[in-house]
Protein backbone atom coordinates (compact mmCIF):
# COMPACT_ATOMS: atom_id res chain seq x y z
CA UNK A 1 0.00 0.00 0.00
CA UNK A 2 1.48 3.33 -1.09
CA UNK A 3 0.84 6.36 1.09
CA UNK A 4 2.11 9.87 0.39
CA UNK A 5 1.60 12.89 2.63
CA UNK A 6 2.09 16.56 1.78
CA UNK A 7 1.18 19.88 3.33
CA UNK A 8 0.74 23.22 1.62
CA UNK A 9 -0.70 26.66 2.13
CA UNK A 10 -1.96 28.83 -0.71
CA UNK A 11 -1.46 32.59 -1.01
CA UNK A 12 -3.69 34.97 -2.94
CA UNK A 13 -1.14 35.60 -5.75
CA UNK A 14 -0.82 31.83 -6.24
CA UNK A 15 -4.62 31.44 -6.25
CA UNK A 16 -5.02 34.26 -8.79
CA UNK A 17 -2.29 32.86 -11.04
CA UNK A 18 -3.82 29.39 -10.90
CA UNK A 19 -7.25 30.75 -11.87
CA UNK A 20 -5.75 32.47 -14.91
CA UNK A 21 -3.87 29.31 -15.86
CA UNK A 22 -7.11 27.31 -15.70
CA UNK A 23 -8.96 29.96 -17.76
CA UNK A 24 -6.35 30.14 -20.51
CA UNK A 25 -6.06 26.33 -20.65
CA UNK A 26 -9.40 26.41 -22.46
CA UNK A 27 -8.87 26.57 -26.23
CA UNK A 28 -11.88 28.79 -26.88
CA UNK A 29 -10.49 31.49 -24.56
CA UNK A 30 -7.14 31.46 -26.33
CA UNK A 31 -8.85 31.62 -29.75
CA UNK A 32 -11.06 34.55 -28.72
CA UNK A 33 -8.05 36.38 -27.26
CA UNK A 34 -5.95 35.75 -30.39
CA UNK A 35 -8.70 37.01 -32.71
CA UNK A 36 -9.19 40.07 -30.50
CA UNK A 37 -5.48 40.91 -30.69
CA UNK A 38 -5.52 40.37 -34.48
CA UNK A 39 -8.57 42.62 -34.79
CA UNK A 40 -6.89 45.39 -32.81
CA UNK A 41 -3.65 45.07 -34.81
CA UNK A 42 -5.52 45.00 -38.12
CA UNK A 43 -7.46 48.10 -37.11
CA UNK A 44 -4.27 49.97 -36.24
CA UNK A 45 -2.38 48.87 -39.36
CA UNK A 46 -5.27 49.56 -41.74
CA UNK A 47 -5.79 52.98 -40.22
CA UNK A 48 -2.10 53.88 -40.40
CA UNK A 49 -1.21 52.43 -43.79
CA UNK A 50 -4.31 52.85 -45.93
CA UNK A 51 -6.14 55.55 -44.06
CA UNK A 52 -8.96 53.03 -43.90
CA UNK A 53 -10.82 52.58 -40.70
CA UNK A 54 -12.30 49.28 -39.68
CA UNK A 55 -15.30 51.24 -38.42
CA UNK A 56 -16.52 51.27 -42.02
CA UNK A 57 -16.27 47.48 -42.24
CA UNK A 58 -18.98 44.88 -41.84
CA UNK A 59 -16.68 43.09 -39.39
CA UNK A 60 -16.64 45.93 -36.90
CA UNK A 61 -19.36 44.61 -34.57
CA UNK A 62 -17.83 41.13 -34.62
CA UNK A 63 -14.44 42.56 -33.68
CA UNK A 64 -15.90 44.69 -30.90
CA UNK A 65 -17.56 41.59 -29.41
CA UNK A 66 -14.24 39.68 -29.52
CA UNK A 67 -12.30 42.53 -27.94
CA UNK A 68 -14.97 42.96 -25.25
CA UNK A 69 -14.86 39.24 -24.43
CA UNK A 70 -11.05 39.17 -24.41
CA UNK A 71 -11.00 42.03 -21.90
CA UNK A 72 -14.01 40.93 -19.83
CA UNK A 73 -12.84 37.34 -19.21
CA UNK A 74 -9.59 38.15 -17.36
CA UNK A 75 -11.15 41.06 -15.47
CA UNK A 76 -14.00 38.80 -14.35
CA UNK A 77 -11.56 36.06 -13.29
CA UNK A 78 -9.54 38.64 -11.35
CA UNK A 79 -12.61 39.87 -9.47
CA UNK A 80 -14.01 36.38 -8.83
CA UNK A 81 -10.63 35.04 -7.66
CA UNK A 82 -10.22 37.88 -5.17
CA UNK A 83 -13.73 37.44 -3.80
CA UNK A 84 -13.44 33.64 -3.70
CA UNK A 85 -10.10 33.70 -1.89
CA UNK A 86 -11.28 36.19 0.72
CA UNK A 87 -14.57 34.39 1.35
CA UNK A 88 -13.18 30.83 1.46
CA UNK A 89 -11.07 30.69 4.61
CA UNK A 90 -10.40 26.97 4.11
CA UNK A 91 -8.31 27.72 1.01
CA UNK A 92 -6.09 29.96 3.15
CA UNK A 93 -5.37 27.29 5.79
CA UNK A 94 -2.38 24.98 6.02
CA UNK A 95 -3.74 21.81 4.45
CA UNK A 96 -2.41 18.27 4.79
CA UNK A 97 -2.99 15.78 1.98
CA UNK A 98 -2.66 12.02 2.35
CA UNK A 99 -2.79 9.93 -0.82
CA UNK A 100 -3.34 6.18 -0.57
CA UNK A 101 -4.67 3.31 -2.68
CA UNK A 102 -8.18 4.07 -1.40
CA UNK A 103 -8.23 7.79 -2.13
CA UNK A 104 -7.10 11.12 -0.76
CA UNK A 105 -7.65 12.60 2.69
CA UNK A 106 -7.62 16.38 2.94
CA UNK A 107 -7.31 17.92 6.40
CA UNK A 108 -7.15 21.59 7.23
CA UNK A 109 -7.24 23.49 10.49
CA UNK A 110 -11.06 23.62 10.41
CA UNK A 111 -12.12 20.74 8.13
CA UNK A 112 -11.43 17.19 7.06
CA UNK A 113 -12.56 15.35 3.92
CA UNK A 114 -12.05 11.91 2.39
CA UNK A 115 -12.37 11.31 -1.35
CA UNK A 116 -12.41 7.86 -2.92
CA UNK A 117 -10.63 7.57 -6.28
CA UNK A 118 -13.84 6.34 -7.91
CA UNK A 119 -15.56 9.60 -6.93
CA UNK A 120 -13.02 11.94 -8.51
CA UNK A 121 -14.24 13.64 -11.68
CA UNK A 122 -10.73 14.30 -13.06
CA UNK A 123 -7.13 15.13 -12.16
CA UNK A 124 -5.16 17.95 -13.76
CA UNK A 125 -1.50 18.88 -13.39
CA UNK A 126 0.18 22.22 -14.06
CA UNK A 127 3.84 23.09 -13.54
CA UNK A 128 3.13 24.11 -9.94
CA UNK A 129 -0.17 22.46 -9.01
CA UNK A 130 -1.99 19.17 -8.82
CA UNK A 131 -5.75 19.71 -9.16
CA UNK A 132 -8.14 17.02 -7.96
CA UNK A 133 -11.74 17.53 -9.08
CA UNK A 134 -14.40 15.78 -6.96
CA UNK A 135 -16.91 17.63 -9.20
CA UNK A 136 -16.78 19.80 -12.32
CA UNK A 137 -16.85 23.01 -10.28
CA UNK A 138 -14.79 22.09 -7.19
CA UNK A 139 -11.04 21.48 -7.15
CA UNK A 140 -8.60 20.49 -4.45
CA UNK A 141 -5.28 22.28 -4.97
CA UNK A 142 -1.94 20.68 -4.06
CA UNK A 143 1.33 22.55 -4.67
CA UNK A 144 3.59 20.27 -6.68
CA UNK A 145 6.67 22.37 -5.96
CA UNK A 146 6.41 21.07 -2.38
CA UNK A 147 6.30 17.46 -3.63
CA UNK A 148 9.47 15.63 -4.59
CA UNK A 149 9.75 14.59 -8.24
CA UNK A 150 9.87 10.95 -7.17
CA UNK A 151 6.66 11.23 -5.13
CA UNK A 152 4.97 13.11 -7.96
CA UNK A 153 5.80 10.29 -10.38
CA UNK A 154 4.53 7.74 -7.86
CA UNK A 155 1.30 9.75 -7.57
CA UNK A 156 0.89 9.73 -11.34
CA UNK A 157 1.33 5.94 -11.34
CA UNK A 158 -1.22 5.70 -8.53
CA UNK A 159 -3.72 7.72 -10.59
CA UNK A 160 -3.14 5.54 -13.63
CA UNK A 161 -3.50 2.37 -11.54
CA UNK A 162 -6.87 3.69 -10.33
CA UNK A 163 -7.96 4.41 -13.92
CA UNK A 164 -7.85 8.19 -13.48
CA UNK A 165 -6.86 10.18 -16.55
CA UNK A 166 -4.50 13.07 -15.96
CA UNK A 167 -5.03 16.32 -17.86
CA UNK A 168 -1.85 18.34 -18.40
CA UNK A 169 -2.40 22.11 -18.20
CA UNK A 170 0.42 24.25 -19.57
Describe the structure.
By secondary structure, the protein is an alpha+beta fold. It is built from 4 helices and 8 strands; from the N terminus they run βαααββββββαβ. A 4-stranded antiparallel sheet has the order 1-2-3-4, with no helix packed on it. The chain is elongated, with a radius of gyration of 21 Å. The mean pLDDT is 84.
Give a brief rundown of this model.
The chain is of the alpha+beta class and 170 residues long. Helices cover 45% and strands 21% of the residues. 11% of the residues are buried.
Question: What are the SSEs and their pairings?
Answer:
Elements: E1 4-8, H1 12-24, H2 27-49, H3 60-87, E2 95-99, E3 103-107, E4 112-116, E5 122-125, E6 129-133, E7 140-143, H4 149-161, E8 166-168
Parallel strand pairs: 5-8
Antiparallel strand pairs: 1-2, 2-3, 3-4, 5-6, 6-7
Helix pairs in contact: 1-3, 2-3
Rounded to an integer in angstroms, the radius of gyration calculated over CA atoms is 21 Å
Q: Label the structural class.
A: alpha+beta
Q: What is the number of beta strands?
A: 8
Task: Report the β-strand fraction as a percent range.
Answer: 15-25%
Morphology = elongated
Instruction: Estimate the helix proportion, in percent.
Output: 40-55%
SSE run: EHHHEEEEEEHE
Measured between the Cα atoms of the first and last residue, the distance is: 31 Å
Mean pLDDT: 84
Spatially, the strands of the biggest sheet line up as 1-2-3-4
Largest sheet: 4 strands, antiparallel
- Spans of 5+ residues with little confidence (pLDDT < 50)? none
Contiguous helical run count: 4
Amino acid sequence: MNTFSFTSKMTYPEFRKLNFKILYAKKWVVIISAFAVLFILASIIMNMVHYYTILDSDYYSFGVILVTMAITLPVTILLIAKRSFKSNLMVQELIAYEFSDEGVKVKGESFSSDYKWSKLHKVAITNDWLLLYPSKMLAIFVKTNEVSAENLEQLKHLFKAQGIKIQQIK
